[in-house]
Amino acid sequence: MENLLDYTLDEFASWLKENGESAFRSKQVFSWIYKDIWNFEDMKNIPKSLKEKLNENFEILIPEVIECFKSSDDNTRKLLLALNDGNLIECVIMQYKHGNTICISTQVGCRMGCKFCASTIDGRVRNLTSGEILSQIMIAQKVLGERISNIVLMGSGEPLDNYDNVSKFLKEVTSEYGFNIGQRHITLSTCGLVPKIYELADEGMTITLAISLHAFSDEKRRVIMPIANKYSIKEILDACHYYIDKTNRRVTFEYALVKDVNDSKEDAKSLGQLLKGMLCHVNLIPVNEVKENSFKRSSNKAVETFAEILKDRGIEATVRREMGGDINAACGQLRRSYIKSQS
């Protein structure tokens, strides 16, 4: 059987017509799904004959919550979710005054090999389908009891390494019949898969593009991120300029500060020079320490100094507020600790 969440409304309408049913039933069924009704038998205005066909051909696969941790510091919740095949993923729910944000996964694991990230240590197991990405929001809203208003594709996995499914998800989650979340409320984070950045720009969407940069030079970046061996910073910046021209949206550059690796005043000055005049914002992130590497987070003083140097050079910079630190809310930490505890 197929996961109905992997179908668009038009795809489902076509299936209905091909199977002797009225296409308008697609909107009825989807309206129930987005009201958290995930059993065809509970959809009251759907004929019995259609329910039988749906039960024979489709499932609505919602992940099982294995563990849910709530931070005592800021109400951040981290969910460990089991997919239908038993694979585990994570998502994080962050509550702000302006609404609820979810950080979702796009792959089981990751193959990009960034040295500061726990989700990539064991490599990529598989891509998530568009429906599996979508279902994280569904279960999160069920747990929270409130609407999710902002989405960040920054959990486990590289979104542009799963381009087709992520692109389909973006169209679904912003559709009127779906969650109807505005494109400007969605951020996609990538380590810099250059051809896919161009492809995303040509989609005509206006989501925020976030680039995991973490260094001002290719030499330094290669120490932290293997992808730097394939695409240079110049190639990434050229793609970002293309994205800005196509969408009129500023690009965010994420910069994880690692003590004695990329957090010096010289690093800050060079980064400021690199990004000078660009429609961009720098998000400084004190690195999350991972047991499997020796990276240490920069001191608060070093982070503040780094930010001030960028601002002095006309680069808008903010320090990411750490949330959920007491519940291992960083990418991949919860999944890895759970798997190790079960082995």
Protein architecture, described:
- The structure is a single chain.
- By secondary structure, the protein is α/β, with parallel strands linked by helices.
- Helix content is 35%, strand content 20%.
- It is built from eleven helices and 14 strands.
- The chain has helices at residues 9-18, 25-33, 48-57, 130-144, 163-173, 194-201, 218-224, 233-247, 265-275, 300-312, 333-342; strands at residues 2-3, 58-59, 64-70, 77-82, 88-96, 99-104, 107-109, 124-127, 150-153, 186-190, 208-212, 251-257, 280-286, 317-319.
- The strands form three sheets. It has a ten-stranded mixed β-sheet with strand order 3-4-5-6-9-10-11-12-13-14. A two-stranded parallel ribbon has the order 1-2. A two-stranded antiparallel ribbon has the order 7-8.
- Helix 6 runs parallel beside helix 8.
- The protein is elongated, with a radius of gyration of 21 Å.
- The protein starts with a strand and ends with a helix.
- 43% of the residues are buried.
- The mean pLDDT is 92.
The span between the termini is 31 Å
Low-confidence stretches: none
How many strand elements?
Answer: 14
Radius of gyration in whole Å, from Cα? 21 Å
Strand order of the largest sheet: 3-4-5-6-9-10-11-12-13-14
